[in-house]
Specification:
Number of helices of chain A: 20
CATH topology of chain B: Rossmann fold
Number of helices of chain B: 6
Radius of gyration of chain B: 20 Å
CATH topology of the largest domain in chain A: Rossmann fold
Strand content of chain A: 5-15%
Structural class of chain B: alpha/beta
Strand order of the largest sheet of chain B: 1-12-7-4-2-3
Largest sheet of chain A: 6 strands, parallel
CATH architecture of the largest domain in chain A: 3-Layer(aba) Sandwich
Radius of gyration of chain A: 26 Å
Number of domains of chain A: 2
Oligomer: heterodimer
CATH superfamily of the largest domain in chain A: NagB/RpiA/CoA transferase-like
CATH architecture of chain B: 3-Layer(aba) Sandwich
Strand order of the largest sheet of chain A: 1-10-7-4-2-3
Number of strands of chain B: 12
Largest interface: A-B, 101 and 78 residues
Helix content of chain A: 40-55%
CATH class of chain B: Alpha Beta
Chain lengths: 481, 213
């Protein structure tokens, strides 16, 4: 099994502090998320009725999940009728084994991949490497982070945390080129040259699936670069790994999904290429893969169905919630320790990979609600963040000190006289710790040294309120006379 | 128990089962001039489109484009309107490969300067062409060469993706999917380095559509 990182409260605060103090990262993420947000808003505004379209997508997603097993069987039947092989994977280990076995049957030593979060989720590249098979990522952003040996930091823009200078340095170091940061066309051309050879020599193409369509057994892949088309057209074998919730019953439904996906993700009415694959090449097709395999990945999804977290399965992976999130904008993707970052990651990562292991993520939010506002499927992420926090309390995942502190706070707050007495005491004893109206926190509570706890005010709000009321009363009496 | 039985069992146990799928979304798009919208949308993403009065004028336009591009090697799908035209006879100075002729199609596509095709449909809203695989219709012709030129009857225009799926349903085509169906909405591009647009990553660097009446 591949190692999955834990993200404790301390880990998250530490990586957040590191991110906040990295000016390159801040510049790159601020610029990218701002552009994504602006383009998204413009694209939705250009639609005749984007709010109704989002309501419609929500209705489609909810109805599909309510009968997911039936739709999956329909999909399987139609995909098989078109000549595709359908495999079912309970977990990451199942999926890895299935893909590696297919690759070995074909004596593959090189596979080309188009960007796929599902294959990131199951750490497929590690499994392929362990079997002696070289996976080459072909999305430019994904290729950049593969060269850098990093995980993706954004669902849509895996390398958006890097500046152009950093990419140029990486290319020069790894590929022996001599680029300056401003030569983006040159770096793009380099990628085209290097990866073109890989496309034409690889024996297997591996992709994810943006949406599958049950009524025809088709899978749909969306890219701007064309690597999705390459991976599914050039090699003789194509393997697609999909989360089993990414299913639309009909083409009408898929059209709604696609017209919101591009607009919400990058502000494009449609991505440049929408590739639909329905089985392998037919007998009289002049080219195309001879074999198509589809791996349906559960990995914890089926357990979420029917419960209070089912809504998270409505996600179409557009990344809009990342771009709008004030926490994501500061800490970037790596702090989440998961291929899924931002608000969607803060909910789905603990649900799929363990709340205890990712205890900090439900707290990586200010609960401002912006993610709900922009979600094309109107997923109530703030509600689920709160539910997860409540689960942590119930499962006693939060640290003992915090539980004690919050328990005592609740007890004191229920007793106004005791509360007044204790704040009076506090006001007296805080004096040696207070400076400019705030208290210095011990290091353990403040790893980044960026937090300030306001000191208790000389007079409480309640005291000011009481004074104000009597002053107001006096005024109004005077006016009345 | 197989993984399939296990997963389907778990899904059936947990699912609410109260599905009430909404009626299909009806397009709310209307364009007075679909061709104009198609051209504007495509130009926005650095594609190019022209509208001409007839196939003859479209072929003149094609000749002009091939000359400007200095195309020496051209691959072409064996489909209407090209299948009844003698393109190599018309432009004998270029080296032509028609899908289905003897020789290595893949190598021809990889070496070609221009790939030539038609399309099943054109979506006005997004400046999108719909391409299908099938006899005489190659995936690589429209993918490997640095330039993709499409000659498409203007009658193929439909307002948007919703009217397109509705038309397919009405024509009973929804069940007859080609193995490969591609919506192309512009030249290949990326913004993966600092969100800066770079055209021509893996697919064609130029995407040119000629709509003819």
């Amino acid at each position: 099994m591949t190692h999955t990182p834990n993200v404790t409260f301390y880990d998250f605060r530490k990586s957040a502090a590191k991110a906040v103090n990295d000016p390159n990262l801040q510049r790159a993420v601020d610029g990218a998320t701002l552009r994504f947000r602006t383009h998204r808003a413009e694209a939705l505004a250009e639609l005749p009725d984007s709010d109704a379209l989002r309501d419609h997508l929500k209705a489609i997603r909810a109805a599909t999940l309510a009968c997911l097993a039936d739709h999956l069987e329909t999909f399987e039947r139609n995909a098989q009728a078109a000549g595709a092989h359908v495999h079912w994977a309970r977990d990451a280990a199942d999926a890895q084994r299935i893909v590696v076995e297919i690759a070995q049957q074909h004596d593959a030593d090189l596979v080309v991949k188009s960007k796929s979060m599902a294959t990131e989720e199951i750490h497929l590249n590690d499994a392929l490497l362990a079997a002696g098979i070289e996976p080459v990522e072909t999305d430019l952003g994904e290729w950049i982070i593969q060269l850098a040996g990093e995980p993706p930091s954004h669902i849509i823009g895996p390398a958006l945390h890097k500046t152009r200078q950093q990419v140029a340095e990486l290319f020069n170091r790894k590929l022996g080129t001599n680029f300056t940061g401003d030569d983006i066309p040159g770096m793009t051309e380099q990628a085209r040259r290097v990866l073109r050879e890989k496309f034409l020599s690889a024996s297997i193409g591996i992709s994810g699936v943006n949406v599958a369509v049950a009524e025809t057994g088709s899978i749909v892949l969306v890219t701007n670069e064309g690597n999705g088309r390459m991976v599914t057209s050039a090699p003789p074998v194509h393997i697609a790994v999909m989360g089993l919730e990414k299913l639309a019953p009909t083409w009408d439904d898929a059209a709604v999904w696609l017209s919101l996906l591009g607009r919400s993700a990058t502000g494009q009415p449609l991505s440049i290429y929408t590739a639909t694959i329905t089985g392998p090449a037919q007998a009289d097709d002049p080219d195309g893969p001879q074999e198509v395999h589809i791996v349906l990945l559960d990995n914890g999804r089926s357990a979420l169905l029917g419960g209070k977290y089912e809504e998270i399965l409505q996600c179409i992976r557009c990344g809009a919630c990342l771009n709008i999130c004030p926490v994501y904008q500061e800490v970037s993707g790596h702090a989440y320790g998961s291929p899924y970052s931002g608000p969607i990651g803060a909910v789905i990562t603990p649900l799929l990979f363990g709340l205890e292991e990712y205890e900090a993520l439900p707290h990586a939010s200010s609960l401002c609600g912006a993610c709900l506002d922009v979600c094309p499927a109107r997923i109530d992420l703030p509600r689920m963040l709160l539910e997860l926090r409540a689960d942590e309390v119930e499962q006693r995942i939060i640290p003992r000190q915090e539980r004690l502190l919050e328990g005592s706070a609740a007890w004191v707050l229920g007793r106004p006289r005791l509360f007044r007495f204790l704040t009076g005491l506090g006001r007296f004893f805080q004096r040696p710790l207070a400076r400019n109206g705030s208290l210095r926190l011990p290091r353990g509570l403040n790893p980044a040294r960026d937090r300030q706890l306001p000191a208790l005010a000389p007079r409480s709000f309640r005291e000011l309120w009481d004074d104000g009321l009597s002053a107001n009363d006096a005024t109004s009496e005077e006016e009345g006379t | 128990m197989t993984a399939r039985e296990h997963i389907l069992g778990q899904l059936r146990d947990n699912a609410r089962g109260d599905a009430a799928p909404p009626a299909p979304w009806q397009s709310r798009r209307q364009f007075d001039d679909m061709a104009a919208r198609f051209i504007a949308s495509l130009e926005k993403v650095k594609g190019a489109a022209y509208r001409v009065a007839s196939l003859d004028v479209a072929l003149d336009k094609l000749g002009e484009l091939l000359q400007t591009l200095e195309a020496e090697r051209i691959v072409v799908n064996n489909e209407a309107p090209f299948d009844t035209l003698d393109l190599p006879g018309r432009w004998p100075e270029a080296e032509w490969h028609t899908v289905g002729q003897a020789g290595d199609l893949r190598a021809a596509c990889a070496a070609a300067d221009v790939g030539l095709s038609s399309a099943d449909a054109a979506l006005a809203e997004t400046g999108t062409l719909v391409l299908s695989s099938g006899p005489g219709r190659s995936r690589l012709v429209t993918l490997l060469p640095p330039v993709h030129i499409a000659l498409v009857p203007a009658a193929c225009l439909t307002p948007d993706i919703f009217t397109w799926t509705a038309t397919r349903h009405a024509a009973g085509l929804a069940d007859a999917m080609p193995a490969n169906l591609i919506l192309v909405s512009g030249p290949s591009k990326t913004a993966d380095i600092e969100q800066t647009l770079a055209v021509g990553v893996h697919g064609p660097k130029r995407f040119i559509v000629v709509l003819y009446d």
